[in-house]
Design brief:
The complex is a heterodimer of chains A (132) and B (350). Helix content of chain A is 20%, strand content 34%. With 132 residues, chain A is of the alpha+beta class. The chains are: A alpha+beta (132), B alpha+beta (350).
Chain lengths: 132, 350
């Protein structure tokens, strides 16, 4: 079930353990392997509404395991185009495939240049190592 | 910073890859593989829990029985050697100092297995009140305690059936232990009391028999599904036994501490009742969340068996009826819940 630890090279990472897959003026967002592992099996995804506005570094959703709830922080600003209904229906999808089937939302970016401030996979792995 | 205590099984938890967390001053496994698979193992087969952090107090002497009858809510006279009883240590207001199980070892010697967080409080409470002909000792460091719970637990351990709340000396694959027919999951099972230096070997033998190691996370979701109260969450010195729905362990006629206060609450009818609810809307109730109609959630979690949020909380008596709609304030969002008859989960109805 649970995926093996990985941090794909094609993603950009936020220090609060979120990833963004930027594609032109749009991006797909999710939480990292580290985040889902720290939480344990997810049992609830409190999703934003489609059309909601995301502000970089602010919470836009919540994910919950049996024992804990965590805010999901927006790595980039934008407008929600689509919420992953598969995750809303079966939140454990995030544990199984955090970078694929377990994506959370697709957004239209307000300011694609914000992505420059995010980390690449190497920098994020360094960030994790420093957190101990 | 205070150092966390470790049970005799600590090294084994680390070796099994458990996630360890501070709990009541102890470093305890919250999960091994995961709360949900561990929970399901106990409902379907058998799981083992290290509950060595719990406290063991011995009360002995010619006056031990009368002393316990005066401080514990249940009727100690109904015990005999080999029998155990769920009971409450109560204060003058009928509030719950602790909930515990008392075992009659011998006619003048009783064992109390108490919550880890209340071990020192309970000892002090009893020690201050002990008469000249009874004495309380804290023997917690002498014992480990391993709960084995689930419909296949006896078969897995090779133990015969025995009535609930009985106990006897026994062994598992040559490791001597006291086999208590008690538990905190709503499933058939035992709690094995073992000498500290044999606890590791007993744990190994139990796991070799195919019992799944389970952490405190599953222990909490299992007890919540069957509505066993957790001291510190659902019951406390500020909540009385009648409002908590624990009148059935209060033998008011024995005149224990607080019995008169409880008698008054019982006659007038409690203003609030500890009620069980199931979420109708998405969202998971958590301890401390407001109940919009009045009150707050005292325990809340995701139920692995119902696959939705469940909880306990005190609500006004007229709202405690099954089917009553409640509203839980889940971090600023109003979510609907429905009061249900206790227990929330039972094998027969699923």
């Amino acid at each position: 079930m649970a995926a093996a630890e990985s941090y794909p090279e094609d993603l950009r990472y936020h220090p609060e353990h979120d990833w963004a897959r930027v594609d032109g003026g749009e991006a797909t967002l999710g939480i990292t392997w580290f985040a889902q592992d720290a939480l344990g099996e997810l049992v609830h995804f409190e999703a934003p509404e489609e059309g909601a506005t995301l502000t970089k570094d602010q919470a836009y959703a919540e994910v919950e395991s049996v024992k804990a709830v965590s805010d999901v922080i927006a790595p980039l600003s934008g407008e929600v185009l689509e919420v992953n209904r598969a995750v809303a229906d079966a939140p454990e999808t995030v544990n199984d495939d955090p970078y694929g089937e377990g994506w959370l939302v697709r957004v239209r970016l307000t300011d694609p240049a914000e992505g420059d401030a995010l980390m690449d996979a190497e920098a994020y792995k360094q960030h994790l190592a420093e957190q101990g | 910073m205070q150092t966390l205590l470790r049970t005799p099984l600590y090294d084994r938890h680390v070796a099994l890859g458990a996630r360890l967390v501070p709990f009541a001053g102890w470093e305890m496994p919250v999960q091994y593989e995961g709360v949900i698979p561990e929970h399901r193992a106990v409902r379907a087969d058998a799981g083992a829990f290290d509950v060595s952090h719990m406290g063991e107090l011995v009360v002995e002497g010619s006056g031990a029985r009368d002393f316990l009858q005066s401080v514990l809510s249940n009727d100690v006279e109904r015990l005999e050697p080999g029998l155990a009883q769920y009971t409450l240590l109560t204060n003058e207001q009928g509030g719950i100092v602790d909930d515990l199980i008392v075992y009659e070892l011998e006619p003048e010697r009783f064992l109390l297995i108490v919550n880890a967080s209340n071990r020192e409080t309970d000892f002090a409470w009893l020690h201050e009140r002990e008469p000249g002909d009874a004495e309380v000792h804290d023997v917690s460091d002498d014992y480990g305690l391993i709960a084995v719970q689930g419909p296949r637990s006896l078969e897995r351990l090779g133990l015969p059936d025995a009535p609930a709340f009985t106990f006897a000396e026994g062994e598992i694959d040559g490791v001597a232990c006291t086999v208590n027919r008690t538990g905190y999951t709503g499933e058939e099972g035992v709690e094995l009391l073992v000498a500290t230096d044999a606890a590791g070997e007993l744990w190994d033998r139990v796991l070799e028999r195919g019992v799944v190691p389970c952490g405190l996370g599953a222990r909490d979701t299992l007890r919540l599904e069957v509505c066993y109260p957790l001291h510190g969450n659902d019951i406390s010195p500020e909540t009385d036994a009648i409002s908590a729905g624990l009148g059935w362990v209060c033998a008011l006629e024995t005149g224990f501490t607080g019995a008169d206060a409880l008698e008054r609450i019982k006659e007038a009818g409690p203003e609030q009742k500890l009620s069980a609810f199931v979420m109708e809307d998405p969202g998971i109730p958590r301890q401390g969340m407001p109940i919009v109609e009045g009150g707050e959630v005292t325990s809340g979690s995701h139920s692995p068996m119902l696959e939705r949020g469940i909880g306990l909380g005190y609500v006004r008596a007229e709202l405690a009826q099954p089917e009553t709609e409640l509203t839980i304030d889940v971090r600023g969002r109003n979510r609907r819940a429905r009061v249900v008859k206790k227990p929330i989960y039972s094998r027969e109805e699923s």
